Fold this sequence. Notes:
Helix 6 (87-102) packs across helix 8, helix 7 (104-111) crosses helix 8 and helix 8 packs antiparallel against helix 9. The model is unreliable at 1-11 (pLDDT under 50). The strands form 3 sheets. This protein has a two-stranded antiparallel sheet. 72% of the residues lie in helices and 6% in strands. It is globular and about 90 Å long. The protein has 448 residues and is mainly α. The chain has one domain (4-438): SecY subunit domain (Preprotein translocase SecY subunit), CATH 1.10.3370.10.
Amino acid sequence: MASGAEQLASSFNFGAISKAAELKKRIWFTLGALIVYRLGTYIPIPGIDPGILKEIFEQNAGGILGMFDMFAGGALGRMTIFALNIMPYISAAIIMQLMTAVSPNLENLKKEGEAGRKKINQYTRYLTVLLAAVQAYGISVGLENMASGGNSAVTNPGLFFRATTVITLVGGTVFLMWLGEQITARGIGNGISLIIFAGIVANLPQALAGTLELGRTGALSAAFIILLVFMSIAVIAFIVFIERSQRRITIQYPKRQVGNKMTGGESSHLPLKLNVSGVIPPIFASSILLMPVTFAQFSASGGGPEWLNTVNALLGRGQPLYLAVYIGLIVFFAFFYTAIVFNPAETADNLKRYGGFVPGIRPGKNTADYLDYVLTRLTVVGAMYLAAVCMLPEILISQYQVPFYFGGTSLLIVVTVTLDTVGQIQSHLIAHQYDGLIKKSKLRGRRG
């Protein structure tokens, strides 16, 4: 039997990709869309002083703004048209999923299939525009209050600046939302995840150079940098291992007599991932945590109210309250998202409808209870894994000033998005191979 690496190498090769015309188009479209996104992260909004803004962000590089800037691919630090990135859309998706779980009308829409899903997506877009407008206005007010060395970051503060900032930032977020949907439909991988992935990866060379510079100046020892590299490799290997891990539940189908033949009786497996929720909990947790803290830090930098300064201090990077809230949000979204994507009662009903059963478990409610029991245990382990991967590097970042790009959330996003994209490429290659076999069999049938 070939090893997992050999199977991966055999199913994923550039020669096979070059022969799959449809796959090549999808890959080129995805790359083109990501290039457009990266170009947009260098187009500044009008009316700001880039030099003053750079000084202010360098002073706050170790705070929550640095993490937001990481997700935005540096767009926030440069205050470009994509400064809000895709985070308002993610926040809107969180709110809509929460509302779907508590609102009977939205739940009925979800059950309507494709038509209901389109309506929910439309509501999500409207909510994205609303959230982006609120956040953009908060950023415009915060920018007017930001100053360095007595010089304001805004050249001409006032109503016109606020209006143009809101229109520009909302337009940038809406464009990225549309671009992500286009990548998902016409490209490879999940468009929203790939946009965040591209923002993180684009600044990796700068982060590596910064780390080496810290080693050259003596701020970090050579031994610590080597340890950091090995730790990053170990975390990546651990993430790949967990994301590939499954709990397979045996499903047995009874034998049936059709005429003089006995059919059925075979067994299959119901695979349940150890981390069912994937990378969604850390992204959702970061998005929820970034919204209030961003406003607090912008206002605090401009000498805002005392309670905002207190919030900013308590929710600073590496602070106990920040870590506790972050862990709590990760655990909550791990269970919440798992409950959304996998329904034990519905799965048990489907198995019963087709005659399948778990050996030793009665069909129906008992099977649903068993699946719920297994899924709960898996989710506990998955939530602990996500919390550990995201928290350990957070402590290193706060204690040793390690760049954000070596954080657990960024590594988790990069690895899981890469695995998902490679998996979709493999699926397209397998489908292309099957199409080729079918065409060959048809040609042989005509010749015969």
